[in-house]
Amino acid sequence: NIKPPPPLSSLVKQFIQDVRYIVSFTDITGNESTFWYQSYPVDQQQLKLLAQFGHKKLTNTPPCEAVAVQYVNLRSESRYLYKTAVTVKTSADSTELSGHSRDFSSKGLQLETTLPVRFSKGDILLLNLPEMQKISSKYQLSALPYEVMAVSKSRTIMNLRAVEGDQPHVGRLFFQQLIQNNRAKLTQAEESPKYPGLSTALRNLYMNAQSHFALYVHRKGIRYEINTLAKGSAGNSLHQLLAIQSKDEQQLDLSLILQNNAISLHFAQQLKQMKRFDSPKAFELYVVISRNAETEQPELHCHYDYEFMSEQAKQQYVLSALQTNVLFCYKLLLSRTGRPDTDFIAPELSYISAYAIHKAKQLEEELWSVAGVIDAIDISAEIPWRFGAQAELSQQHYARQQALLAQLKQPVS
Whose CA, among 97, 133, 223, 311, lies 20 to 30 Å from 46? Predict the structure, then answer.
């Protein structure tokens, strides 16, 4: 029997009972788009017209609280709570900052400083552990190199990772022995949510409302494949466009957007260089729909941003497509994934196993083979603005665009 998930608490129900809308923000800023917008002249006299959109300062600010999404713990080892004095500096600056550890593992530690720091992710720091040095004559616990992995908003808390060189990291060896000899005495760090169950409830509401187009990049041996996509409750325009040349709506033909070895030459090469915590790599996909002169059937043509020789060539291509055809554009965000959160879907896997264990194993293998995810964000409305299309041309193109989408939604007779 499958154990049902625990019911929502009355407090969680109270939080979500009035939720009616979900807003999803995606940053689509890029160096290329910034180049175009900064090149356009600005009429300073018209800036004051923006004042009508301003909001007055409220006397009482509505409460707003961030709720962290609870995912599977991807740490390779446990962390232990422990407070000990730490001093830190960089190789370029001899000024030492004082602080203390909050928790540690053999491969890293979380450090809290007395004063805000100016360090950023990727900086290499040199740590001294004066109190720990008093209990260890075997290890020299000074000038230990650690890399900054994250810095809190307050700039006083940093997550650090041991930097491995040709020789074993002294700090790692010391903490390994410390944990091994004192495991029963140490308190393991656990990240417990403030409102148990709220994160999962909001996560489910959010996923149910999504209309993104997502592609899953699977690693099969040394090869990378894309043959699985996700469709939200409504889907987006790219689902509709790919359905034009697909015989089965449930089996969309991805060859159009994977032409010219896009997987192996670009997506796979990027994934090989990425870590799970890296920011997504961005690509832009341009899809032009024209009419076949003989059959009057729509034909699709795709180009990626990296296929254009220059920004000017891209602008010419876009403005030409806006004149006579229908143009859609998507920003593809490629992210590296970690191991799957199989605990979250354990009841579903258990249910499938009860009837077809081979299917459950196959599904789990597919999940473990996912190396990356590509989110396709429709930025078609932004493209005419970016490349300086006239307002009348943009309006005419938008009308053709909406007419095509309405036609694609109609059932085939």
Answer: 311
Q: pTM of the full predicted structure?
A: 0.73
Displacement of CA 170 from its chain's centroid (Å): 34
152-207 confidence digits (pLDDT tens): 888 899 999 999 888 899 999 999 999 999 988 888 876 667 788 888 899 888 88
| First-to-final CA distance of the chain | 46
Residue 188 in 3-state DSSP? strand
C-alpha span between 225 and 83 (Å, rounded): 47
Question: Distance (Å, rounded) from C-alpha 293 to C-alpha 290?
Answer: 9
Tens digits of residue pLDDT in 37-71: 999 888 889 888 998 998 888 888 888 888 877 66
Distances (CA, A) of 164 to 102, 159, 167, 209, 219: 22, 16, 7, 44, 28
Mean pLDDT for the stretch of residues 21-45: 89
Distant-in-sequence, close-in-space partners of 71: CB < 8 Å, separation ≥ 6 = 341
- Report which listed range, 189-198, 284-293, 323-332, is most confident: 323-332
Q: Residues 139, 120, 152, CA angle at the centre, nearest 5°?
A: 90
Confidence of residue 411 (pLDDT cuts 50, 70, 90): low
Break the chain down into helix, strand, coil percent, rounded to 5: 35, 25, 45
Q: Report d(CA 112, CA 242) in Å as an integer.
A: 51
- DSSP line for 52-121: GG--PPPSSPPP------------SS--EE---EEEEE-SS----EEEEEEEE-SSEEEEEESS-----T
Q: Sort residue 233 into left (φ over 0), alpha (ψ -120 to 50) or beta.
A: alpha
HSE, side-chain direction, 13 A CA sphere, residue 366: 12
Look up the CATH architecture of domain 80-188. Answer: Beta Barrel (2.40)
